[in-house]
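stage 2 :: seqdesign
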């Protein structure tokens, strides 16, 4: 049995990752990796579902104990993924989805080079700012920091300092989710994941 896919979705804050992922979860069977963070909980978020919201001290203790596969600091807050959130899922053959920042994506790639990494882009910087302001949850200083960080990430992608397997532009939630589904369907049919099939046929086995 193949291990499940490790799927990383990243993108600037305000791009709509959460909304796209919520739609994907209604269409495909996968486990959503719940990251740990030290940032404040936004209206409508649920501890243990949106994130594991922890103190800075608790997060640093997890790092010290070697329980985190990747960690990063974004807008002055820790974000990270535990080993258990990945290993326990893919061992069963189920896909696991991670909504993480670019630095976290780079760390995942180092430890899981087979991961499928997708970067979600806004249609324009103007639209990104409109979406950030439309949330009505962040103060002006935070919005400015998020826009500045988005430009930094895009520059890293342009210059090849950060590499993702796929870019998906989120014009609409429906369109973006459909494109990601197409990517995952293709990845599940890749040579790397189906190398055993010719041998099975030669052995007289039927392919399910």
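stage 2 :: out
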């Amino acid at each position: 049995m193949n291990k499940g896919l490790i799927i990383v979705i990243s993108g600037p804050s305000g791009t709509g990752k959460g909304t796209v992922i919520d739609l994907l979860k209604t269409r495909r069977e996968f486990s959503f990796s719940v990251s740990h963070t030290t940032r404040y909980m936004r209206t409508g978020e649920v501890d243990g579902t949106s994130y594991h919201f922890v103190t800075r001290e608790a997060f640093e203790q997890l790092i010290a104990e070697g329980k985190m596969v990747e960690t990063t600091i974004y807008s002055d807050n820790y974000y990270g993924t535990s080993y258990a959130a990945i290993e326990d899922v893919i061992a069963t053959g189920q896909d696991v989805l991670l909504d993480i920042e670019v630095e976290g994506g780079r760390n995942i790639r180092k430890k899981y080079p087979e991961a499928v990494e997708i970067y979600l882009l806004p249609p324009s910087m103007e639209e990104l700012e409109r979406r950030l302001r439309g949330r009505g949850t962040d103060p002006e200083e935070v919005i400015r920091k998020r826009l500045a960080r988005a430009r930094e990430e895009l520059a890293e992608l342009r210059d090849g300092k950060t590499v993702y397997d796929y870019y998906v532009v989120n014009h609409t939630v429906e369109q973006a989710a459909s494109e990601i589904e197409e990517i995952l369907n293709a990845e599940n049919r890749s040579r790397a994941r189906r190398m055993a099939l010719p041998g099975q046929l030669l052995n007289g086995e039927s392919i399910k």
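stage 3 :: structure notes
- The two ends are 12 Å apart (CA to CA).
- The longest helix spans residues 140-158.
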